[in-house]
Automatic annotation (TrEMBL):
It comes from the Eukaryota. Gene3D superfamilies: EF-hand (1.10.238.10). PROSITE patterns: EF_HAND_1, EF_HAND_2. Residues 37-72, 73-108, 142-177 form the EF-hand domain. One of its GO terms (cellular component) is organelle. This is Calmodulin-beta-like. InterPro entries: Centrin_CML-like, EF-hand-dom_pair, EF_Hand_1_Ca_BS, EF_hand_dom. Pfam families: EF-hand_7. GO terms for molecular function: calcium ion binding. Keywords: Calcium, Repeat.
Length: 181
């Protein structure tokens, strides 16, 4: 297979790097950092949102999606969300922009979970242990049993403590399938 150099394709095929805005450069770079599995997930979500079938999401489609999640943002809030997502400012959200925003949102969620993890890691050893959790609750056998069960259920490497990855798995499972009360 023969590779074609960009000079053979023509100067107009690739935009010159000095003509790209910082936001556009961030978009191009972020696409390389998103895993294939995440891209598949994002594509499915994007496809559900993209009702106009032009490959872009409009503010109206974004509003409908947010309302389907039982959220009621004001017009200004919706415009702010849309403007933040429309990185190139053309009035539409394309797939690259959608991926950039989704990845940014997920990274922010992970940073928040990291803060929660640090609060639970009472001895600051980088793990949540049974003792860390027991310091947070009142004394009682039933609470000890629940804590032991949590450690057993999510301590996948069986070292008696939860790593950050195990903690994230636990949180994601709890929030995707909340226990019935």
């Amino acid at each position: 297979m023969e590779f074609i150099l960009s000079s053979q394709i023509g100067a107009n095929f690739f935009p010159a790097m000095d003509q790209l805005t910082d936001a556009q450069i961030a978009l191009y770079l972020s696409m390389d950092l998103i895993s294939g599995q995440k891209l598949v997930e994002y594509k499915l979500i994007f496809k559900q949102l993209n009702k106009n079938e032009r490959g872009v999401i409009t503010i109206k489609e974004l509003g409908a999606m947010i309302k389907s999640l039982d959220k009621s943002p004001s017009e200004k809030e919706l415009e702010d969300i849309f403007r933040a997502s429309d990185v190139d400012g053309n009035g539409e959200i394309d797939f690259r922009e959608f991926c950039f925003v989704m990845a940014s949102f997920e990274n922010e969620e992970e940073r928040e979970m990291c803060q929660v993890f640090k609060m639970l890691d009472r001895d600051e050893d980088g793990f949540i242990t049974q003792n860390d959790l027991l310091q947070l609750v009142e004394k009682g056998d039933s609470k000890k049993k629940v804590i032991r069960q949590i450690i057993r259920d999510y301590d996948f490497d069986r070292d008696g403590r939860l790593s950050f990855a195990e903690f994230l798995t636990m949180i994601k499972k709890i929030f995707s399938h909340p226990p019935e009360l």
